[in-house]
Amino acid sequence: MQFERMRPAQIRRAVAQGMPFVLPIGVQEYHGEHLPVGMDLLAVTESVARLGDEVVVLPPFAFGAASHAVAGPETMGTYHVPSEVILPFAQAMFAGLLTAGIRNIHGIIHHQSENFLQGMPTDLAFRLAARNAVFAHLETTRGGGWWGAPESADYYADFAEGENPFNWISIHPLLPPGADYPFDHAGKGETGLMRALAPETVDMGALTDEAPWYVADAHEATPESGEAGVEIILAHLREIMGLA
Ligand SMILES: [Zn+2]
Fold it and tell me: Could you tell me the distance, in angstroms and rounded to a whole number, from the CA of residue 59 to the centre of ligand 1?
């Protein structure tokens, strides 16, 4: 379900049921001549769309910190927004969702997520924004000293059971760590995902001898090879969101 297409009563029902609210997070970045510039975002939006009515999909955040590591803006496709600009925006957005009573929020990102444990600028901005928003919400609603108060005596036990406020918002990589699927930039892995998820956006004929090094194995990608990756992604998403 797309959030922006829902009526208030439908949203209230989803919140009451504790349904996951998914925030697709992406960038606009050059992915060779054969893939769309929104590859990293489309991999997320098209995957979560397959979860259908089991989740509420928030309007995606499309302009992350792409960096100009791959290509400059003049190449057409890469538009970098610094993480320090994203941080206050993301924090305000999360604050609004928490104030509305939404408590099961999952940001999903593919861009640069192979190094997720240490973090990269876009996911770090959203992760810090989430932490800041939760702390601010708790201090506003429960007052200073909320953690030290007697009502918080079960804090550690609650955390294990997933009741903890710091589980209200979590940010995850699209592919699970160590997945048996190639993680690359516009190579066989990402080209396969697009051939499976958004085939109309791919032009395999644009893979020429002048193509950059990172697309060298892209010609090996097929809709079937990509579909194997999508299956891994969907199993991962279902697990982290507790879906059957
Ligand atoms: Zn990518």
Answer: 20
pLDDT tens across 20-53, in order? 999 999 999 999 999 999 999 999 999 999 999 9
Q: In angstroms, what is the span from residue 16 Cα to ligand 1's centroid?
A: 35
Residue type, 98: L
Ligand 1 center to 132 CA (angstroms):
28
The model carries a pTM of 0.95
Could you tell me the distance, in angstroms and rounded to a whole number, from the CA of residue 191 to the centre of ligand 1?
A: 9
- How many angstroms is it from 174 CA to the middle of ligand 1? 11
Residue pLDDT, tens place only, 158-199: 777 767 899 999 999 999 999 999 999 999 999 999 999 999
Angstrom distances, CA of residue 141 to CA of 97, 105, 116, 155, 171: 14, 19, 32, 17, 23
Cα-to-centroid distance, 66 and ligand 1 (Å): 9
Tens digit of pLDDT for each residue in 127-152?
999 999 999 999 999 999 999 999 88
